[in-house]
């Protein structure tokens, strides 16, 4: 909402520094977005009169003018073609400054001297739409040489307010004036709505039939005859322009002016274009057509409310008038309409038709039916003030259910109860009255709410009114001194932070990726048609196909991150993300999804599978999970020979491995990538935060190294399992320290070297003790996996 | 014998004084004090002396032995110090050479700021609650007192899964979920991802993060809202931070407010970051609307509460002076390394 300060002063006697005004309004709840100081930089721009125009001898597109600027006649070259001799125009003199900071200096244009510049509205920082062709032609004869800022009201300030949804009443000069008056303790002056025209009666000209009473609670019409359509006066155009509305002609300008002033949208119809001297408010017929003011044909349906004459629609109610009944230069008799339309209906129609106007956006928010008469009378008053026509007596006002002021109770002690500050009852009353509430009673106040305040429906709303005018600043700042509560993270949240700490310590960077992805990701990661990951939840109105499903795996996101980094010439990286996947029991989704926290780890660049596995092993250690295994597995996204699954307590928690080269190709990654995706929810269940101290060893350990030759298909996991099984409690550690293939070893075999550390908790082990168990291990290795001891 | 002792004493002292290494010193020790050393040999010959001479010569011999022993010990100590000093001199290193580092990773900047905010509220007795991102329309809108036709419900603004399920547009539904689950006193914060139908640009993202807060108890007032959030702002942005509460409107709080903090970049002087206002909008807040309390089965006559919500991404951008939100979701390693 744009509010020119000079206009605002019509309603409140505002004499406050602009900065204090802006702060005060913001702190009482009408937030200021910006302040524009019109013409702030303009200097040495004056009124001039064109006394001669001749073509430029060297340029067809230029004109040479002689301009009288009061005591001096200047030659000025211009490119504009809308000027005539005797026009009064703004002239930027030599050495002048325009609003954008441009300095104007003497110069030569195609060989002829130009001693300044004739200005367009745009060059003066004004809305250009009224003079699309060029120079601003002033509306009357001002003293030559007068500072243009005075003439054009460029010494004004325009304040832009952010109006919240609940306060449509503040989308008007009167609404802002009311807030201003209440905030600064000023008196509010309403503008005159006196109308002297009494000639004839509106019913002689027109009748109104509201058929869709459910969508139109009030419809009022007044008629103006002997209309003279012309430009509105400069002061009105100036105000409209500053408020962001394009001046058109006096009648349309009046309707817009009244809308800005009162918040009530108005419309003017050319009565001669109405068939049957009748206005009907009805639902449109299906496929009924109307050409709107913007000269676009619209096709309506029976949910849209229209204003019609006997035969055809002449406007879409609350949204836009029809082209057929538009005010034209020769219009002689008009009907002003001020009405209330159902806010939801206007909103839905406006959305359906894709038209949003100043009027529709106001109707959508809900307007005060009581304002209708004030607005229509105000428009008639302005008609008389501007000499735009003669007001016909009487008003048609279809208003079956009068809107009454709501009466509410305010228990004064609840104010302190909610706000925590003692405000004297007198002060409460004064604040409410300044906002045009009526207040009576003591202890429990009876409050009558103004009709324009539909947002005030409960006691807390009244308390808010008191609080905001009293000033949030004046409410003390106090810590809670009520019940003590125990805060903190729950176990899952704590484990999440342990995982993050662990990942950080292991050198991984946490990522944050979008949880919605393209449906094509499943093909990109090689998922077969029947892969359950494809059962993804769809967004019905996504930003685009690429962001249309909720992810069921984070692998595609991780591959994208790695691809982006790799292709930015970052040669290595280790990343993780602890975030959600979204799984559906059935599609379409009937109830909440299964949102499962998932840990994804991705590494690339001078890394191999065992770097990835080591990261996971470290994590398992940190979480005190001991009963886990990593076994060979299959997964279509991974390299078939380098895929494993992580089992904890024999339950599969996820996959880890090298990504399949086909998948890497799809992500444009020409280097090997290792990814693990683990179900964090299961990890949480298996984590044991209960750490128990184990006594330090009392007896020495003894190390024995062995090297065994086994066939290639025997895994390290198998060998370690045999060593641990046979060694029992005496085996403290088993470390694989070398694998050898090559000369001395038969093709298809490998030599694996282990060091085994033996220790007993009960005694110092003797050579005999160890040899016994060591031989047991060697025998089992030989019998179970055919291992031959290398000497 | 006295003369011999005197000679041993003088000669040994001269020899010890000339010593340059521990080995030489040891040789001297053996020469005089060893089993076959001169002094030892001499003492063995004591039996030949008269009983009168024996104690005199004995005493003298002991004095000479003690003297030599002490002299050797002293010299040994000096030699060891010299050796050590020499070694230390030779072991000079250039301490300005780079250290050997284990490469550390990092939390995402959003997680870092989130952890910081969580810890501030945990210190004030709040627990952390989480809720679904695919949320029921009821919790996201209806239960929060949004009218049936509230514009936020538009398909243009909200991602829908079905008519009744959507991607939550705010963390506020968890106010209701918490109050349904738990009776007062309630003090929770709810961090999480939220979604709105905005195209990605420097300040907008269709997925972003909010932190919701809710307090419900007997005797909670707007003064408590101000006090709690003021402490929060000071802890997050520094003790010098001031806060300003402006009236605002939210469907689920009444009265409602927005909180501005003095710009931490310029301290309230006005700069590029705060657009010369000296203030930065940080969060929305208000006293829980009686309808919302009633919807959750909490008697608004007896209990009151306050709620607040803030955009984590925005706060992180401010805190780290990042000008483009897109960096947060690009995950360029050179970006992630900086936090």
UniProtKB/TrEMBL annotation, chain A:
It is found in: Cytoplasm. GO terms for cellular component: phenylalanine-tRNA ligase complex. This is Phenylalanine--tRNA ligase beta subunit. Gene3D superfamilies: 3.30.56.10, Bira Bifunctional Protein, Domain 2, Ferrodoxin-fold anticodon-binding domain, Nucleic acid-binding proteins, Phenylalanyl-trna Synthetase, Chain B, domain 3. Its cofactor is Mg(2+). It comes from Lutispora thermophila DSM 19022. Mg(2+) binds at residues 455, 461, 464-465. The keyword Magnesium applies. Residues 403-477 form the B5 domain. CDD domains: PheRS_beta_core (cd00769), tRNA_bind_bactPheRS (cd02796). Residues 697-790 form the FDX-ACB domain. Its main location: cytoplasm. One of its GO terms (molecular function) is magnesium ion binding. It comes from the Bacteria. Tetramer of two alpha and two beta subunits. Binds 2 magnesium ions per tetramer. Residues 39-149 form the TRNA-binding domain. The keyword DNA repair does not apply. One of its GO terms (biological process) is phenylalanyl-tRNA aminoacylation.
From TrEMBL, chain B:
Its cofactor is Mg(2+). Tetramer of two alpha and two beta subunits. Its EC number is 6.1.1.20. It is found in: Cytoplasm. One of its GO terms (molecular function) is tRNA binding. It comes from the Bacteria. NCBIfam families: pheS. Binds 2 magnesium ions per tetramer. It comes from Lutispora thermophila DSM 19022. InterPro entries: aa-tRNA-synth_II, aa-tRNA-synth_II/BPL/LPL, Phe-tRNA-synth_IIc_asu, Phe-tRNA_ligase_II_N, Phe_tRNA_ligase_alpha1_bac, Phenylalanyl-tRNA_Synthase, tRNA-bd_arm. Belongs to the class-II aminoacyl-tRNA synthetase family. Phe-tRNA synthetase alpha subunit type 1 subfamily. Residues 111-330 form the Aminoacyl-transfer RNA synthetases class-II family profile domain. Transmembrane segments: none annotated. This is Phenylalanine--tRNA ligase alpha subunit. It catalyses: tRNA(Phe) + L-phenylalanine + ATP = L-phenylalanyl-tRNA(Phe) + AMP + diphosphate + H(+).
């Amino acid at each position: 909402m744009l509010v020119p300060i000079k206009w605002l002063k019509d309603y409140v006697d505002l004499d406050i520094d602009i900065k204090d005004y802006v702060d005060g309004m913001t702190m009482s709840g009408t937030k200021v977005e910006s302040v524009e100081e019109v013409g702030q930089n303009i200097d040495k721009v004056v009124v001039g009169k064109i006394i001669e125009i001749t073509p430029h001898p060297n340029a067809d597109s230029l004109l040479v003018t002689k301009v009288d600027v009061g005591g001096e006649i200047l030659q000025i070259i211009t490119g504009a073609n809308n000027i005539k001799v005797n026009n009064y125009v703004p002239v930027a003199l030599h050495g002048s400054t325009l609003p954008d900071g441009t300095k104007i200096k003497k110069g030569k244009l195609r060989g002829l001297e130009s001693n300044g510049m004739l200005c367009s509205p745009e060059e003066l920082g004004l809305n250009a739409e009224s003079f699309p062709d060029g120079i601003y032609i002033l509306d009357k004869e001002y003293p030559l040489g007068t500072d243009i800022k005075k003439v054009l009201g460029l010494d004004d300030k325009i304040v832009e307010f952010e109006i919240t949804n609940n306060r449509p009443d503040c989308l008007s000069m009167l609404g802002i004036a009311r807030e201003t008056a209440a905030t600064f303790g000023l008196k509010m002056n309403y503008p005159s709505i006196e109308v002297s025209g009494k000639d004839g009666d509106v019913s002689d000209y027109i009748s109104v039939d509201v058929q869709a009473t459910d969508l139109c609670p009030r419809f009022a019409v007044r008629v103006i005859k002997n209309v003279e359509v012309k430009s509105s006066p400069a002061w009105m155009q100036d105000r409209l322009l500053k408020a962001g509305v394009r001046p058109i002609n006096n009648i349309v300008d009046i309707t817009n002016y009244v809308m800005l002033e009162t918040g009530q949208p108005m419309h003017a119809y050319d009565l001669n274009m109405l068939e049957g001297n009748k206005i009907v408010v009805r639902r449109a017929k299906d496929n009924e057509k109307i050409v709107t003011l913007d000269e676009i044909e619209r096709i309506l349906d029976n949910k849209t409310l229209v204003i019609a004459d006997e035969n055809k629609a002449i406007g879409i109610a609350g949204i836009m008038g029809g082209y057929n009944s538009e005010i034209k230069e020769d219009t002689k008799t008009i009907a002003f309409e001020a009405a209330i339309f159902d806010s939801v209906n206007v909103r839905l129609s406006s959305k359906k038709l894709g038209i949003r106007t100043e009027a529709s956006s106001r109707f959508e928010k809900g307007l005060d039916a009581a304002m209708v008469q004030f607005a229509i009378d105000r428009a008639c008053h302005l008609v008389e003030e501007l000499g735009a026509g003669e007001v016909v007596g009487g008003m048609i006002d279809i208003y079956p259910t009068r809107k009454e002021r709501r009466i509410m109770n305010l228990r004064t002690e609840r104010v302190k109860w909610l706000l925590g500050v003692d405000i004297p009852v007198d002060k409460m009353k004064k604040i409410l009255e300044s906002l045009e509430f009526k207040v009576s009673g003591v202890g429990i106040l009876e409050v009558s709410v103004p009709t324009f305040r539909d947002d005030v429906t409960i006691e807390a709303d009244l308390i808010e009114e008191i609080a905001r005018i009293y000033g949030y600043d004046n409410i003390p700042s106090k810590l809670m001194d009520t019940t003590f509560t125990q805060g903190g993270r729950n176990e899952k949240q704590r484990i999440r932070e342990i995982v993050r700490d662990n990942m950080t310590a292991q050198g991984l960077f946490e990522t944050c990726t979008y949880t919605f992805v393209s449906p094509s990701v499943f093909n990109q990661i090689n998922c077969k048609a029947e892969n359950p990951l494809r059962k993804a939840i769809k967004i019905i109105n996504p930003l685009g196909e690429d962001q249309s499903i909720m992810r069921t795996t984070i692998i595609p996101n991780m591959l994208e991150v790695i691809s982006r980094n790799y292709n930015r010439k970052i040669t290595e990286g280790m990343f993780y993300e602890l975030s959600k996947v979204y799984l559906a029991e059935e599609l379409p989704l009937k109830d909440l999804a299964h949102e499962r926290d998932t840990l994804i780890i991705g590494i690339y660049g001078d890394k191999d599978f065992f770097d990835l596995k080591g990261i996971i092993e470290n994590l398992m250690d940190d979480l005190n999970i001991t009963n886990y295994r990593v076994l060979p597995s299959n997964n279509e996204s991974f390299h078939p020979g380098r895929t494993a699954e992580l089992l904890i307590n024999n339950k599969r928690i996820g996959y880890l491995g090298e990504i399949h080269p086909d998948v890497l190709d799809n992500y444009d990654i020409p280097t090997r990538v290792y990814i693990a995706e683990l179900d964090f929810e299961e990890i949480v269940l298996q984590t044991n935060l209960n750490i128990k101290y184990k006594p330090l060893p009392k007896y020495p350990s003894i190390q024995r190294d062995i090297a065994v030759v086994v066939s290639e298909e025997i895994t390290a996991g198998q060998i370690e399992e045999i060593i641990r099984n046979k060694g029992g409690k005496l085996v403290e550690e088993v470390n694989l320290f070398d694998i050898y293939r090559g000369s001395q070893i038969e093709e298809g075999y490998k030599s694996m070297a282990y060091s085994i550390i033996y220790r007993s908790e009960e005694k110092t082990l003797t050579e005999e003790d160890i040899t016994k168990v060591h031989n047991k291990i060697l025998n089992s290795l030989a019998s179970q996996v055919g291992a031959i001891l290398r000497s | 014998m006295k003369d011999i002792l005197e000679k041993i004493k003088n000669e040994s002292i001269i020899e010890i004084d000339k010593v340059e290494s521990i080995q030489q010193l040891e040789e001297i020790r053996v020469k005089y004090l060893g089993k076959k050393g001169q002094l030892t040999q001499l003492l063995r010959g004591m039996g030949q002396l008269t009983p009168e001479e024996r104690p005199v010569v004995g005493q003298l011999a002991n004095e000479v032995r003690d003297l030599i022993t002490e002299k050797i010990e002293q010299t040994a100590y000096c030699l060891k110090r010299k050796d050590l000093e020499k070694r230390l001199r030779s072991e000079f290193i250039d301490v300005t050479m780079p250290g050997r580092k284990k490469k550390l990773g990092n939390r995402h900047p959003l997680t870092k700021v989130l952890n910081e905010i969580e810890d501030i509220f945990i210190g004030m007795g709040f627990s952390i609650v989480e809720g679904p991102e695919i949320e029921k329309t009821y919790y996201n809108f209806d239960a929060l007192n949004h009218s049936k036709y509230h514009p936020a419900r538009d398909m243009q603004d909200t991602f829908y899964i079905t008519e009744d399920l959507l991607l939550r547009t705010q963390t506020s539904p968890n106010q209701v979920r918490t109050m349904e689950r738990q009776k007062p006193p309630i003090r929770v914060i709810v961090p999480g991802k939220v979604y709105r139908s905005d195209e990605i640009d420097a300040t907008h993202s269709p997925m972003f993060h909010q932190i919701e807060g809710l307090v419900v108890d007997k005797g909670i007032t707007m003064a408590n809202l101000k006090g709690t959030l003021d402490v929060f702002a000071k802890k997050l942005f520094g003790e010098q931070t001031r806060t300003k509460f402006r009236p605002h409107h939210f469907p689920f709080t009444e009265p409602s407010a927005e909180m501005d903090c003095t710009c931490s970049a310029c301290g309230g002087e006005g700069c590029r970051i705060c657009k010369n206002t000296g203030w930065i909008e940080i969060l929305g807040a208000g006293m829980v609307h009686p309808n919302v309390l009633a919807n959750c089965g909490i008697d608004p006559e007896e209990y009151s509460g306050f709620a607040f919500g803030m955009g984590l991404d925005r706060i992180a951008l401010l805190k780290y002076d990042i000008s483009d939100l897109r960096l947060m979701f690009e995950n360029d390693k050179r970006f992630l390394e900086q936090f």
